[in-house]
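Propose amino acids for all 157 sites.
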């Protein structure tokens, strides 16, 4: 698990040398660029998953750990800040394997809205973690599930 997270983090750090660093939608310049963009996008998703999954488990089991919620909520907030840079590199001009629907690259405003919703829910999770109220915990985590599902429904094959 640590190796996967470390390689994902390394891939995200290296992305700055391949991607423009801009939150504006950009076309991949070559097949190599498209492949790298997909690798970075998938690495980002793995980091999101590694932070969201424990909270979804808490919700399912109704057994909450406020410290995990606080930490993972903070991480999700930070990942949301990076998302547009990695999601909006249009790879559709190249025959590269991806689960991203082409609509991801033509709906920049909606994608940015969904990213903002993820950031807000991550902040809500952090705030809920400080309340001691399990109802607030459950509501905040359920909001994360809805936010993830919204993006998957619209932009993942």
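Proposal:
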């Amino acid at each position: 698990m640590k190796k996967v997270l470390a390689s994902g983090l390394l891939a995200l750090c290296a992305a700055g040398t391949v991607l423009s660093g801009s939150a504006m939608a950009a076309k991949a310049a070559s097949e190599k660029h498209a492949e790298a963009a997909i690798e970075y996008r998938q690495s980002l998703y793995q980091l999101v998953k590694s932070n969201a999954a424990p909270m979804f488990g808490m919700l399912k089991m109704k057994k909450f750990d406020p410290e995990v919620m606080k930490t993972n909520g903070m991480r999700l907030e930070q990942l949301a800040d990076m998302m547009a840079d990695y999601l909006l590199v249009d790879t559709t001009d190249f025959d590269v394997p991806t689960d991203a629907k082409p609509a991801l690259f033509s709906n920049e405003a909606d994608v940015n809205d969904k990213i903002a919703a993820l950031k807000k829910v991550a902040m809500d999770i952090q705030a809920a973690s400080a309340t001691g109220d399990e109802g607030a915990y459950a509501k905040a985590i359920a909001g994360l599930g809805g936010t993830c599902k919204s993006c998957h429904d619209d932009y993942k094959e």
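Confidence is low (pLDDT under 50) at residues 4-22. The beta strands are 26-27, 89-90.
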